[in-house]
Amino acid sequence: MNKRELEKAIHTKLSRDDDYTAYLQLDALLDAQKPLGDPPHHDEMLFIIQHQVAELWIKLLIHEVARAIDYLRDDRLSQAVKNLSRVRHIQSQLYGQWKVLDTLTPSEYSEFRHVFGKASGLQSPQYRILEFMLGNKSRPTLAVYEHQAEWYDRLVTALEAPSLYEEFLRYLARMALPVPAAVLERDFSSMRDEDDDVVAVLRTIYEDRDQYWVEYEMCEALMDIANNFQFWRFHHLKTVERIIGHKRGTGGSSGVSFLKKAIEIEFFPELIRVRTELGE
């Protein structure tokens, strides 16, 4: 077998303050998995790590979408599109994780499901913030987080702020496209109905790609993100169905039927509608 000698220049005189373990805070990160089963169930570790890793990816999604929003506010559309390209790849990582959890069988899961009580993924504050940032606003969902003051405040801020799509419409208005004032200045904590004039603006972009190429790229980036989110939702639904069938969720939801309703929610319905009208 070939051997690789340790190169002389490699640092070996390290402290606990300046090495890889310290930079990534691996001691805290790798000590954060606390199975509750007694005796411990082998597959609970999979379940915990699966969800913790998902939360880390969602944290990065929030980070990248927030930067894209900042770029839009500064009229730097190309940079926003670049960030959304990264968002799509992060979403692919999240989607791919379901394949690992799919290896958990119903009998294995039933042996430790009881240990985490009412805990449920629908209570993830980060997931809810991400949905708010993408435009799926719902004030009643805040009730789930009233016992977490810091998260509650962050959720309210995200709920009441313009979403990524709404910031794009604001950008288009600053570029002299006729986005209605009622769309630009309103209560952003609620979802609005589709607007014919907004669809007309989007149609202009799609029909004159030479003049509005970067805007066109932004529209397509938004659709990619919306579709990836739907792929994730659908695989989530099928994983839940595969493992627990039609049992109620631990968070009190109806389970699979509750998840099916989420698939019916589109983030950017005007971008879908413009596809219907193009060429007519």
Describe the structure.
- The structure is a single chain.
- The protein has 280 residues and is mainly α.
- 60% of the residues lie in helices and 0% in strands.
- The protein is built from 13 helices and no strands.
- The protein has helices at residues 20-23, 26-30, 44-73, 77-101, 106-110, 125-134, 149-160, 164-174, 181-184, 196-207, 213-244, 256-263, 269-277.
- The radius of gyration is 22 Å and the shape is globular.
- The chain starts with 19 loop residues before the first helix and ends with a helix.
How would you summarize the topology of this molecule?
Blueprint: H1 20-23, H2 26-30, H3 44-73, H4 77-101, H5 106-110, H6 125-134, H7 149-160, H8 164-174, H9 181-184, H10 196-207, H11 213-244, H12 256-263, H13 269-277
Question: Keyphrases for this structure?
Answer:
280 residues; 0% strand; single chain; mainly alpha; 60% helix
Gist of the model:
Helix content is 60%, strand content 0%.
Model regions low in confidence, pLDDT < 50 over at least 5 residues: none
Shape: globular
Output the helix-strand order. HHHHHHHHHHHHH
Query: From the helix content, strand content and strand pairing, which structural class follows?
Result: mainly alpha
Number of strands: 0
Query: Compute the gyration radius: what is it?
Result: 22 Å
| Residues in helix, % | 55-70%
So how many helices? 13
Largest sheet: none
User: Terminal Cα separation, in Å?
Assistant: 67 Å
Kindly state the mean pLDDT as a whole number? 94
